Amino acid sequence: MSDNELAQYYAQVADIYEDKYLEPDLDEDAQAAAEHVSEALANHKVLELGCGTGFWTEFIAESAESVLATDINDIMLEIAQEREYVLENVEFAQADWLDLQLPEGRTFSACFAAGMWPHVKREDYAKVFKNIKASIGSGGFLVLIGDNNVEDFTPPTARTDAEGNTYQRRELPDGSLVEVLKNFPTDSFLKKKFATVARDIRLSRNEFFWMLTCVLK
Q1: What's the pLDDT at 2?
Q2: Domain named Methyltransferase: which ranges (predicted)?
Q3: Which of 81, 75, 79 is nearest to 61 (CA)?
Q4: For 42-93, how does the pLDDT look when each residue is reduced to its tens digit (9 = 90+)?
Q5: What are the phi and psi torsion angles at 93 (to 5°)?
Q6: From its phi and psi, is residue 105 left (phi > 0), alpha (psi between -120 and 50) or beta?
Q7: What is d(CA 114, CA 97) in angstroms, rounded to the nearest whole number?
Q8: Helices (H) and strands (E) in the chain, counts
Q9: Is the dihedral of CA 103, 109, 115, 119 positive or negative?
Q10: Which residue positions in the chain have pLDDT lower than 70?
């Protein structure tokens, strides 16, 4: 699956994207993770990558100084903008994390992404790291949320490519099947990769989600 095909997949499932947050047990884990993220990003000027429908945006906006929520899909941004942001501190922009073009004049102290990192190919890590650092600078705070591989819940892996990236087969609303890149990195793999570009790396997991925080070198 190419990056363009991944974007097309999420455009097609935008209307049902948040259904997963209604699943028993996952809903509690998502709520707990969102609260931790909100605490971690308090008072920061946040760049959010892959904001999707704004589920996580709504939480971080409660404590952040400001949020620029970005996504590659217009339909996702339209849904995200329909939410009520009490502090009115959220702006939106279309952006691709592999070719990150942001509005001029904006400065950020932190970057946040939920669900994005499992869709980054292993061979693209360096490119995405570079884009994030160019946006928030050395000393910038990075917070990532990703999905765990949960037995009897997570769709099975359909194949693994030569780089070690794993792929799932998922059903679209029309019943057709597509292949979606979805990596489930181990703690040791994440720490090893992030150690080259960051310090103060902290990694935690609940049943459904992992959370990584670090400060860019």
Answers
A1: 58
A2: 46-140
A3: 81
A4: 999 999 999 999 999 999 999 999 999 999 999 999 999 999 998 999 999 9
A5: -155, 145
A6: left
A7: 13
A8: 6, 10
A9: positive
A10: 1-3
